[in-house]
Amino acid sequence: MIRLMRMTSNLTLTRPILAPLAACGLAAGFAVAAPALAQSDKMVSIATPAQGDAIKLGTGELPGATARESWHSQYNSVFARNVTEATLTPFLPDPAKATGTAVIVAPGGGFRTLSMENEGWDVARALAAKGVAAFVLKYRLNQTPPRLADFERSSADMTAPRGPAPRPDLEAMMANLGTQIADARAAFALVRKRSEEWHVDPDRIGMVGFSAGAMLTMATTLAGQDAKPAFIGNIYGPLAPATVPADAPPLFVALAADDPLFGNSGFGLIESWRAARRPVEFHLFEQGGHGFGMYQKPTTSTGWFDEFARWMGMHGLLKPSH
């Protein structure tokens, strides 16, 4: 459920953005070192980028919202805040390469911000290059201070040391994600509705999420009713145990052992999938921290996407469905 911004080269955290953690109890006690920020680490307000291809999902305005959507740059990447209306942006492959497989991409950001570039658009472009139709989900977020300086200050306040963090509780976290699950369900419904137009096999629509987006991916799988992803990717999300349905989809997991949030929280989700005799692949990288996404780093975690693509290929998802 929690998303931290990109790690620095020495794997200390710079101005992490934590989720609104009273709901799940994960932030209490997470201690963070905050060295001086490099120029690229600073949050800088930017104009809302053109999103001509974004499709409104029709799940409505965020109830009670007063702050409006805003964007900022950080780590040479782009982030959105205070999203009050969900959208889905298609990244379609060359028709000559199209496989019929599709993926809903859920960026992370602690449900306070969305890493739209590193964990959204860049992932979608890489999938489209493999012949996979990708759809970036800009889901509704919890409200944060409208002024960027106040947002940055509130985020820093959430990182004060409070002792050892408790282990994640998946069911407790999912109980607070009704708004985001509704957005994910609407995304699946839209892709299925327009599957012929987009050359997508409605039975081959998966989902991949990062940190908070990984939490949403698991919630969509376990509590998303009609969404029913055909396959899922959990990239540095919580790995708490879960009650796994008999028809649970194949699961791909990538995590760095030095992830300050989930690297020492156990691998209950992997064990749950195995106990249910459902397909699961788990990559535990020695280094990478939290939030590596599509950033190019000198760690093997940078190879997670290639492994994910190979895994999809192993399941026949990179071959034409018809």
UniProtKB/TrEMBL annotation:
Chain ranges of the Dienelactone hydrolase domain: 117-297
Cross-referenced InterPro entries: AB_hydrolase_fold (IPR029058), Dienelactn_hydro (IPR002925), GDXG_lipolytic_enzyme (IPR050300)
Signal sequence, start to end: 1-33
GO terms for MF: hydrolase activity
Key words of the record: Hydrolase, Signal
Name of the featured protein: Acetyl esterase/lipase
Organism in which the protein naturally occurs: Novosphingobium mathurense
Taxonomic lineage: Bacteria, Pseudomonadati, Pseudomonadota, Alphaproteobacteria, Sphingomonadales
